Structures are given as C-alpha cells and as structure tokens.
Amino acid sequence: MEYVNTASSKIVHDILNVLDNMHLEGHKVLVEWHYYQEDEDMLDLGKEYEEIYEVPFTFEEIDFDRPKNLFKID
After folding, report:
1. Domain range for residue 58?
2. Are 19 and 49 in contact (CB under 8 A)?
3. pLDDT tens digits for 4-28?
C-alpha cells in the first residue's frame, strides 16, 4: 500500500480485527508490518495499530530499490 486513505484504513482495521479475534481465541497469528526505508509515516502507522490490537506485530524495513516478494507460503 503506497498511502492510506479512509477506505484503505477501514479495510486494514477490518483485517486487523479479524486477526485480533483469532489471536484472542488462541490461534497463532502474527502481523508482519513491512515498510519502505525512510517511510516513517508507514512505520508509525504500524506502531499505532500495534497499540490498538493485541495481536503481535513485527516490523521490517524494505529497501525501495530492492523490493522482495512479501507473499510466502510455509
């Protein structure tokens, strides 16, 4: 996501609510928050979400010039 507007913010909140409920029910859930280097606003947004929800978060900085595949299947 390049930027956050009202519609995308609502969708992110909806997704995080589902993940938070799953976590509270005992499921193993982890939010991996990826953000581009020097995009402090996106990092701060992730940190704000981390304070709101109980689901655990991790944060990883991504090099804009060397993006990686964020979709992995274990």
Report:
1. 6-62
2. no
3. 678 999 999 999 999 999 999 999 9
